[in-house]
Design brief:
Length: 49
């Protein structure tokens, strides 16, 4: 039978995974909401001219 306490003591996180996670979170990614806000702002700016 598996001793979960012993297995947890042996656990070490994968370093590559932590590096990848940090790289992903540190990127400034534009999503659809950002694009829509920008399009609305540009549309308003054009209509004010």
């Amino acid at each position: 039978m598996i001793n979960f306490e012993e297995e947890l003591k042996k656990f070490h996180p994968v370093l590559e995974l932590e590096d990848a996670e940090e790289a992903i979170y540190n990127q400034d990614l534009t999503d659809m909401a950002d694009l829509l806000v920008k399009m609305v702002q540009e549309s308003r700016d054009k209509s004010e001219e």
